[in-house]
Amino acid sequence: GAGVSQSPRYKVAKRGQDVALRCDPISGHVSLFWYQQALGQGPEFLTYFQNEAQLDKSGLPSDRFFAERPEGSVSTLKIQRTQQEDSAVYLCASSPGLGREQFFGPGTRLTVL
Amino acid sequence: KQEVTQIPAALSVPEGENLVLNCSFTDSAIYNLQWFRQDPGKGLTSLLLIQSSQREQTSGRLNASLDKSSGRSTLYIAASQPGDSATYLCARRISNFGNEKLTFGTGTRLTIIP
Fold it and tell me: What is the mean pLDDT of residues B9-33?
């Protein structure tokens, strides 16, 4: 009966490195979301999956950002050639279905040096 | 671009007082609105979800209202406690079919003084 889990909780990367952030949604939740939260700001939408289909990726800031959910459960957010402006907390959320409440994980804090 | 506004950015009140947090949004095409709390270094905890057809929702000492016509929602906290200290965020979902993303405000940082 666990909630949404994310790993790692903290990640430090050197500028130019690739990183992969993992999200395990609540079992049975068909919708999965990624958000980016800068310090002192509210979360900003990145992308959204319905099962394995990526239905909205309008919030991804550049083509260096890529997300997948190949089997409709676990999702990975990948950032290639990280830049300092990518430093933020990356939050994952899941939902039982359309228009339903979203439940958030603890986030991954990414620091790019 | 922030389409959801929360004022004030920070608020301090003595323990035991009732308080109201404000959230305003610019478009009336709202599907639902969700209130969250966020503790330092933690993720978001969902507090209340109000559908566009509802006027208010209650959970324990919390009551959230929604006024679509004025573009406002309020979160009322009764008999505040030090454990209520956190950042409170509101987020709205618009009504376009398939548009599931939440748009968040910047939050109100609440401190309850013992």
Answer: 91
